[in-house]
Amino acid sequence: MNQYLLLMVITVLSVISCADNRGEDFRNESPVNPGGFPDGDVPQMIVLGSDDNTNVEGMNWILDFMASRSHKDGTSLRMSFYSNSRSSADWHLPENHKLVEAHKRAYNLGHELGNHTSNHAFCVYGQTGEGQIRITQDSIFRIVDEFSHDLIHLVGMNPKHIVGFRTPYLAWSDSVFYVINNKGFWYDCSITESRLGPGRYIWPFTMDYGASGTIGSWWTENHGTSVGRHPGLWQLPCYSFQAPDSLFAYMDSLAGRTHNGLITGLDYNMWSAPRSGWLLNKDQSLAVLKHTLKLNLEGNRTPMTIGMHSQYYADDFNGFGFQNIPSAADRRAVVEEFIDYALQFDDVWFVTGAQVIHYMRNPVEKEYYNPDNYLFTK
Q1: In terms of residue numbers, what domain contains 252?
Q2: Using CA of residue 43, residue 269, residue 164, residue 216, what is the dihedral sign?
Q3: Tens digit of pLDDT for each residue in 111-152?
């Protein structure tokens, strides 16, 4: 039995609880949507998840652009911001007042503000046997609590709405999952998912039995970061993009080997230099995003996640590390043109990570889907 069919069998055993108690949620890993609907009847959700968000211009750009667009059904576009409050832009300093105001604006517009720790610390730094450094579990509790405190007291968030988490640098460890599960977060979105590819990926799942994609992975094997059981904690994978065939020769030349065209699903990994990235230009980046969406729409319609960093799109950001797309205007154009492309489809919606988890608990077919039904009520 191949891997795809095996996961389809497993899904029959999956049970989704719609209870308010997050700890009662359970779903096995499966490529089958939570409602068991025909693939073509599933709403295609796209999650723009922006990390750090240390620049006012970058945040206001994406907020303004999304506010200027709407879905075919007239509903608003929304996204998730996973920010830091005590790193390169300290929210407690007077000069960063406008950055706090930008986060308030995002929250009041219905976007999600998630936790990315207060100081953007490496939870795991360095490979095993190379002087690896790990911060303690108590330290993880502290930097998670600090940021949640700042969201509540500086932004004015309802603490019940702080439900999403992403580990800085995607450098997760089992201690991270223990902490955020203990703190009552609904979901994490730190584990990359590249198996099977877009259109065949597993849907979000709860980590009652860990995360099978981490077993034997490069990160786990080189950093000693096996994952235990974390009942009720959802994993919204950081899904990899799939480059079209036309880019394979280019990617092979960069990698020095035959490559499968998969790209870790963040802007940084499209634009930075190898080994982290692929030095894509504007047209190549758009081709990758459009092709990934095409495969999703033709396949099982797992949520498409796009990791970004809003500060990269500000004119004063130093983009020289992105050799083939050094212009902030070109970087903004990638996102803007992709959003406009996706909005041509009747059954595509830009949503938050929290809305995805709401949907996992209460799935409906696309003809009945209204993203506003999956928002928090204030």
Answers
A1: 40-196+235-374
A2: positive
A3: 999 999 999 988 877 776 666 778 889 999 999 999 999 999
